[in-house]
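Fig. S4 source data, part A: sequence.
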Amino acid sequence: MLSSLHIRNYILIDSLDVEFPGGLVIISGRTGAGKSILLGALSLLTGAKADASLISSGADNCVVEAEFKTDDPEVKAIVEEGGAEWEGGNLLVRRVVHSSGRSRSFINDCPVQLSTLSDLSSRLVDIHGQHRTLALATPSFRQSILDLYAGCGPLLKDCAETWETLRGLSSRLKEIEGRRSSLEKDRDYNEARWSRLDEARLCEGELEELEAEWKILSNAEQIKEAFSSAAELLSPSAPEAASVSSSMREASRLLSKIGSYSPAAEALATRLEEARIEIDDIIGETEAEAEKLEVSPQRLQQVEERMSELYSLLTKYDCKTVEELIAERDSLSSLLYDSTALDESIASLRESIEKERASYGKICKELRAMRQKAAPELSSSIESELHFLELEKSIFTIELTQGEEGPAGADAVQFLFSSTGKNPIEASKCASGGELSRIMLCLKAVMARYTGMPTMIFDEIDSGVSGSAADKMGTKICAMGENMQVFAITHLPQVAAKGQAHFLVSKGQDDNSNIVKLSPEDRVTEIARMLSGSSITEEALANARRLLSE
């Protein structure tokens, strides 16, 4: 329930503080007094768009604040999920619009996202504006009315979840199929490139090793001759020629003989012996290298062919090293593997989609069955209410047809209407303004009954209606006020005379709008004005008292 409203610097409202009772609350006022401005301020708390043009001239910001009381557990969940305190169901909802055009939202003085206000308002207040009769032409509105009456809430939740899952799976499938298609276009090309690199049996460091071996093989004869010549010089093969090693051994022996007389000779003998040992080692290795080195044209050809192959691959794949070629091979392998993995993912996704599609189809059938059962009952109820509102010959029928698949199933709901009792057609296309007002009132009464909405605001829902029909609309609105809080903004005295609380919106000398609760006598005067215009006669006053007494 909306218990109070506080407004600062909103368009023509400098300052306003008003408390509201439960039940039916009547709001009236002359045209242009600011009733719509008041409603616009309240709509800010439902998440409506805000900009700097809403701020009163000369002010830095505007503030709209309302106090609500509720024990709805869903409201509690929204408040706590939004990061605000619950405080036992007392909600202080505030929105501040700054001169920059930006706004901030609060619940119980805790900052919240604007989306939280929107979610919250859907459980606290329903505002029926002057042009909401256009909602009759909206498929989602028609369907929501029938679903509320049929009690489809839990099933609709399952349907929406299944639909979103199905959409997510379908989107994922489309994405993967696109990737696979892209890979398939290049599959043969990539596979050929990978095969070429795989067949090459690449090894890290191979090219460097081959280049070193090629240098040796291509100069094998020169290298072998050099090793052999060096060995010959150090250790001649001719019998009469003395080797370097034997000469050094003899010199070391001679020096050692005089070592006892000359310490220098002993030292030199030791050094010669050490040098001789190193020379013998060098001779051995030189002879070994000369002996093991083979001049092999066949191996040289193999090395040159392998190097040529690797150089060709480096050029073809625009790489600088064999390691880069190996990386390219592994990358191509991953692409080819991904293609296979994507095939498996596609098969799995299609299986999941088939299961979700079956679940979705089952839910749609259950929803249709519930709607088909409820449609005649709701049609009869609305038709009966329309007869009460002096559309005695009217026919109202709800028709279900096959619609597009969506989160609420696959049904299309049509409201068919005829004021003459013949040939009903789509209500939004054939009903007059007054008939639309009465149809919407009946539908809103259904919504209020089945949603548990604590507060409903009607902005001239009685437009286009007068006389006894207006009186009966007032009776209908008054009956709704017995179970919930109802605000009725009206120009009709027959409606304004209903209920107990009556508020008047007016403009002061400074053109600021204000709202005050009328005393019983002031209420008589206001209804008399609504009956007779600016000149209030005794007859109008008497008529006003009669309407109030009734």
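Fig. S4 source data, part B ends here. The chain has 18 helices and 15 strands.
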